[in-house]
Amino acid sequence: MARCISLQIMLASSPSRPPAHQNKPSSMSTGLLIYENGPYWLYKAGLHTSDASLLLVDAKGATHLMASPIELSEFRTKSIAQHIYTYTDAKKWIEKNDLKFSLINLVKFLMAKAKVNKLEIPLNFPARLFQFMQENKIDVTVTTRDPFFEEMAYLRADEIKKLQEAQNLATSSIELARSLIAAAEVRSKNMLYLGGQPLTSERVQGEMNAYAAGLGALEFHGGPIVSCGLAAATPHDNGHGPLYANETIVVDCFPRHKNYYWGDCTRTCIKGKASPWQSKLIDTTIAVQEALCAMIKPGASGDLIQKTATEMFDKAGFPTGEKKGENYGFTHSVGHHIGLDMRGPGARTLTVGGGPVKAGHALTVEPGLYYPVNINGGIGGCRIEDIVVATKTGHKNLTNLAKTPYLIP
Predict the structure, then answer these.
(1) Which residues contact 368 (CB under 8 A, 6 or more apart)?
(2) 241-296 pLDDT per residue, tens
(3) DSSP state letter for 18
C-alpha cells in the first residue's frame, strides 16, 4: 500500500528563512536523521515499516519518529521509540509557523521537537531530499561513519539470541538439502535423480526456501546457493541444472528470520566418491576455517586473519592467482559483519587491511577455494562458513552444524 503522501509530493520547497517566532535550541545541538525502512530504522524504531519514514535521534539519544495515519496504531503499540508524532501534530506546528505541509517541513518539525539545529545523515540518505535540505538552509552533514549508529556494530545479548534463531534457520535448511541429496539415486552420467526426476539446483533451492519459510523465514536475499562442479568454482553462482555425483556441491543458505536478523551458513558435500584432490580441497578448507574461527577474539587483527588464510592455503598447495582470465584459489575476504544487515553494518574487519575485532562483533568466517581451471589436480569449489560472535574473552560460534562427514553415500 502506498503511503498517503509520497516523497515526490512532499518535497515541495518552503521559505528558507524561518519565521521569527520559531523556537530555536539554546545551543548548537546535533541530531542523527534517517529516511528509510532498512536496518537503521529497524534498530532504532524496533519494528518494520513498509515504506521509508523519518526518524531522528536527538543529542541525548532519544528517538523521534513520524507515523502516518495507516501506521500510527502499530507504531504506538510496537515501537521502541521514545517519541512518536502524528501528521496532525506536525500540521499544527507547520501551520503555526506559516509553512506548507511538506517533507522538508516534517524534518523541521522533528528538529524542533528534538531540540536540534544541526543534522548528520548516513551515506545511503536519499540524495534529492539532501539537496532540498541544503536549499532550505538546514545545517546538514553527510557522515562516512559506518555504521551510522555506531552501537549497531556491537550486538547485545538479545540481538545475539535473534541472530542465533536466524542461523538455526540456515543450518536446518542445509540439513534438508543434505537429506535430499542423500535420498537421490545416481543414474546415467552420474546425474542425481529423486522421485524419478532429476535433482536440480533449483529444486533443492525451492525445497530449502519453502522449509525455511515454514520455520519463520521472511526472505532469502536471492538464495540459497546450491552449486555443483564447475558452478561451485564461482563463489556467488547460485547453481543451475542437475546435480551430479562425485562433484563438490556448495550449499550456502542466508535467510532472514521474522525477527529481521540474518543467518548465513555454508557447507560443502559430495554425493558418492571424492577424488584425492577433492578430499584435500575440502579437508584443507575445514582446517583453515577452524583455525580462523579460533583467532576470533577482541584485539585480533582482521588483516592478520585474512593473511593467515591465504598463507595456510598456499602452504597446503592451493595457490591463488589468474589463468586464462579466470581467478582461482582463495579469491575473497574471510568474512563480513552480520546482524540486521546481511553485510554489515560496521567496518570491513575480516579482510585485507581490516581493523581489530571487538567484543560484540558478529562475523561470518567463510574461507573458500575455487578452481574453474585445473591448476593443481581438479576443477570445482569449496566453502565452509559459520557465524562467530566475539565475546569479552574469546568467541562463541552460533553455527550448530557439523562440517564432516562431507561424503554422502
Answers:
(1) 235, 250, 266, 285, 330, 331, 332, 381, 382, 383, 384
(2) 999 999 999 999 999 999 999 999 999 999 999 999 999 999 999 999 999 999 99
(3) P
One domain, residues 294 and 386: yes
* Cα separation, 285 vs 334, whole angstroms: 12
**What pLDDT, on a 0 to 100 scale, did the predictor assign at position 324?**
87
Written as one letter, the residue type at 148 is F
Residue 282: inside a domain, yes or no?
Answer: yes
Cβ-contact 389, 166 below 8 angstroms: no
Domain span at residue 135 reads: 7-151
Q: Which residues pair with 56 in a beta bridge?
A: 33, 64
What is the per-residue DSSP string for 201-269?
A: HHHHHHHHHHHHHHTTEEE-TT--EEEEGGGGGSTT----SB-BTTSEEEEEE-PEETTSPBP-EEEEE
Cell of 332: 575473497
DSSP 322-379: EETTEEEBS-S-S--B-SSBTTBSS---SSTT--B--TT-EEEE--EEEESS-SSS--
What is the maximum alpha-carbon separation in the chain? 84
Residue showing cell 500540521: 91
**CATH classification of the domain holding 136:** 3.40.350.10
Question: Which of left, alpha, beta for 91 (phi over 0: left; psi -120 to 50: alpha)?
Answer: alpha
Is the pTM value of this prediction over 0.85?
yes
**Are 383 and 268 a contacting pair, CB within 8 Å?**
yes
167 Cβ contact partners less than 8 Å away, ≥ 6 residues apart: 263, 264, 265, 387, 398, 399, 400
Q: How many contiguous H segments (helices) and E segments (strands) does the chain have? A: 10, 22
> Which grid coordinates belong to 43?
534498530
Element (H, E) at 45: helix 39-45
Residue 258 sits in a domain of what CATH number? 3.90.230.10
Closest CA to 386 of 296, 260, 271, 257: 296
